[in-house]
Amino acid sequence: MGRKSLFLAWVLNVVPGVGLIYVGRQWVGIFLIMVAAIFLLLIFTGIGAIVGLPLYLITSVIACIASVVIASKNNKSLKK
User: Fold this and answer.
1) pTM of the entire structure?
2) How far apart are CA 80 and CA 60, in angstroms?
3) Res 19 pLDDT > 80
4) Which of 34, 51, 52, 72 could form a disulfide with 43 if both were Cys (CB 3.0 to 4.6 A apart)?
């Protein structure tokens, strides 16, 4: 799979899940993109904004952490 940039894996999660696609976890990334899109739609509804925004932010944080951890593990396995 090759070395992956930790910074790029983190930055790509401006859209939650894209960083996971970058590090090779396509299905997890696509799933998080769909979940984030649902939460984003909730943000644009009246009362849903109270629930949608925190859930969207949590999804973003999870995607950021997961993509950096996976990229780091990938890079460590290449050094051996």
Assistant:
1) 0.86
2) 31
3) yes
4) 52
